Amino acid sequence: MSVDVAPASIVDRVEQVRSSRRRAGRRGQLVLGGLLAAWLVAMVVRTLLGDFTITVPDFWRIVLGTGEVPGGAEFILLESKLPRAVVGTLAGMALGASGATFQLMARNPLASPDVLGLTMGASAAAVFTLVVLGGSGAAVTVAALVGAALAAVALLTLSASRPGAAPTRMILVGIALSAMLTSVVHWVLLRADVYRAHEAMVWLTGSLNGVTWRQIGLLAVVVALALPLLLATARELHLVELGDDVAAGVGAPPGLVRARALLLVVLLVAATTSVCGPIAFVAFLSGPIARRLLGGRASIAAAALVGAVIVVLADHAGAYALPEVNLPVGVVTGLVGAPFLLWLLTRERAS
Question: Which residues of 215-251 are buried (b: 16+ CB within 10 A; e: fewer)?
Fold first, then answer.
């Protein structure tokens, strides 16, 4: 009799697992669809609403160039509203995906490019180029890429001495790197004249104001190339999340997986930082929010969409929440992200 029951129990268990996966898949599709809808709403709000309202017919006339529109509407849409919405989407997707990737690699919801030093690596190199070397444009972009790459190499090298301790060491090394690079930025600002220091401080706040279509095009190319590759590594990253020994046992060497994912994150973070400056907390917020929406499962794609929604809406709030005050998007995300960090730390300690 026991021989007959055991196979039935195994079959029931397998069926339960399959049913759970189907439910998780359906929930994931619903969440991704909902996030896409939320992003579309955010884009409509950012491009059409505000102190200068643009109607939907006028929007299409301007974009398609098919008719006359009220005076000033074309300039406001094409030179202010639309570019900020587009670059906000690209920056949010890049930062959201980067944050979720770090959290998968470190197996810790507190890990993100902000915390682990990549953002500050890009910022320190860019500010040094901007203030000390007098560079601009492409020079700042290259400097941000080099700075983020050096920070990533230091992070990966110093945190990989013992495989079992890599996630914890990665966070500790990243915090130390971030603190050191912050001191470098402060030192550079102390050496700068008032004009350069002000320019650097505006950039360090994180802002979408004044971004050109050329910069948007360059960021779009990086996101279009790096983000799909990062999404393709999601399965291996989920294996790494289960532990280094498990990942190595199923053919996903954790060191190689981390290095490949880190390279893609460096490209995304450096490109975003060089265009918009360091936008605080977006990379940190997106992963945990996506996890909660998905019932505890991590998703780089969902985190990317969450990041896009956060940045676009935060930029709109910064532009119009206070009369006659235009707050940089980094200020708004910082005001939202700091309480979220405190809540997450309290929740982690309670658990």
Answer: bbebbbebbeebbeebbebbebbbbbbeebeebbeee
Tell me the pTM: 0.86
* Tokens read off for 349: 């300690």
**pLDDT tens per residue, range 47-79:** 998 888 888 888 888 888 887 777 788 888 988
Instruction: With cut-offs at 50, 70 and 90, classify the pLDDT of residue 13.
Output: low
Residues 108-144 have pLDDT tens digits of 777 788 878 888 888 898 888 888 887 777 788 788 8
Q: Rounded CA gap, 344 and 314, in Å?
A: 20
